[in-house]
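User: Can you fold this complex?
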Amino acid sequence: MTLKTLLGTACMAASLGVLALPASAATPSVQSQKGTNGKTIAIFVPSLSNPFFVAEEKFAADEATKLGYGTMVASHDGNAETQLNLIKTAIARHVSAIVLDNAGADESISAVKTATDAGVPVFLIDREINAKGIAKAQIVSNNFQGAQLEGTQFAKLMGYKGTYVELTGLPSDTNAKVRAQGAESVLNHFKDMKMVGKQTADWSQSKGFSVMQTLLQAHPDVKGVIAGNDTMALGAEAALLAAHKPDVIVVGFDGSPDVVASIKKGQIKADVLQPIAVFSQKAVIEADQYIKTGKTGLPEKQELNCILITPENVGNYTNWAMKS
Amino acid sequence: MKDMAKQDLKKSEHPESETRGTGPALGALLLKFRAFVALIVIMVLFTFLSSTFLTWSNLITVLVQSSINGLLAIGMTLVIVSGGIDLSVGAIAGLCGMVVGALIDVGIPIHALGVVVYPHAWAVVLIGIAAGALAGAVNGWIITRLNVAPFIATLGTLYIGRGLALLSNNGSTFPFLDGTKAHGNMGFPWLGNGLLLDIPVPIWLLAIATLAASAVATRTTFGRHIYAVGGNERAAALSGVKVRSVRARVYVISGALSALAGIVIAAQLDSAGAAAGTGYELNAIAAAVLGGTSLMGGKGTITGSVIGALVIAVLVDGLILLGVSDFWQMIITGFVIVVAVAIDQVQFNAVKFPWRGGAAVKR
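Assistant: Here's the predicted assembly.
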């Protein structure tokens, strides 16, 4: 292949690639947008490669725009140091408030304190920190309650008997542990249900797929899979369908549009919705309240209950929320 | 130093036969096939520890699980042998998965005519692979024309590729790639989960890629040039090898194979995610190194790297079957890699000391 043909092929592929992808401008790591009231709210989330956090960021940013604020949005990739740098940047830019999905219950305390000491109120969403009185609010979904909901529905679907495997999240993530504990606190009561395998799939869809493949080798007659989040549930479901075992019961946790679509197709049997639309918007509304009046008027810690999604009520789902 | 270079070039003429034919046969054989020996040892071990391990269906599962890393490792091996490194393979896999996902779920909107074209599943696959080859060509161009070190160039394209993949659907996935009858683009997931003569398709893909790449590496002029360039770039240039072109082309191959790996991932999961393939570059490098590829270039075999990928897949599968925790899986995998490379050093010293006769390099 000469360079010419090489370039020719390249150009062809390029034009096809451009057609295939929606046109968008390159985005810097920190995106800023001006508001109408001259004030800015910073929104920091752990990742922009996970639809969950993308949705979380979008709900918060949209609410801020609606209330007239400019936004400064970035991801700290779960790295406490990056998080601290972002918070320092936000302080230097004189933002009026920070909405943060933090990078670790212990590691984030000093970062939140840095902002608070500089007079910038912090509103935590999705995950708590192990300290009280520093952040103005900690609005999280009740992971333990959600996991119990998931476990209860899973047991019901299984007919309270049979073998199952559990896929857990990234071992270093607090939510992975809390969800496993929540689900097991329910499942341990059913003597006829037996957990034959428990593996981490690191919240990852491809790892969920390959781990499920291997677990199927060891336990070909397994009846159910309880997953700690939606991406792992989707990976496990794909592996089960590939192995022609569509009857194995899979349940997930998050309430992502992909799993909801799977429930509608009759594949995944149940999911637990984390009310991220609600808590993201709530954090911004409370920040607005605090900026205007100096207080939120609500307790610091606010736990929002998760909602079960089943084939029966899946019609009420819209974009990470349930119509009531 | 000069002698070393000379020997490297000579070595490069015999890419598949670096260990000399003469000398103490058994020791040399064990060293040459150490990845294979490691594979056998690990497999025997797991057979004793787990009753499920040595079953037909589990072995098929292991082969399927090694196919993605295997495809990446083949491209990686050619790149490393040429004296480079490709850190962008995982990102290219993710990006091309997204291209394929977009083509199936969204199609190609042609605004002028106000229609949306949905290419056939096979066309989708070919476009995906072309996109990977393009990304590889960009790598090759940056490295050979802008003279950026491969490590840095492909580190850069790793970030760019991942960023583009995320941008393509704003961080969301393209789910359900079955296609629809109305669009005439059904059948894509077959590549990941289908069977051909009772063998899963990804295994066929890996087998074909292995045979083809092996043939290119050992039986074509281009293949020999890859070894020559990686062994001693200057000497290769002086003997008339078009070094730049050889170096650029290995990245195109690596890019195309990365795309194929990304396509298999998307087909298996029936969904394209922007984060797919994250960190896979290190698995591919590990497989290549396990298989005896030297990071210094000029040395390595395709089959060795594929066996390296198998070793990693067997380890992961066997440890999950035994219910070993993820933490130990990481530690054990790392241990195996270090031991394999330590053995490589033993072999290197053996070659340096003349008791096995450097003369055997001659034809």
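The two ends of chain A are 62 Å apart (CA to CA). The domain at 31-135 of chain A is CATH 3.40.50.2300 (Rossmann fold).
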